[in-house]
Amino acid sequence: MTVQRFEDLVAWQKARLLTKQIYILTASERFSRDYGLKDQIQRAAVSAMSNIAEGFERSGLPEFHQFLVIAKGSCAEVRSQLYVALDSAYISKQEFDETYLLAEEVGKIIGGLRASVKRQI
Question: The whole model's pTM is what?
Answer without folding.
Answer: 0.96
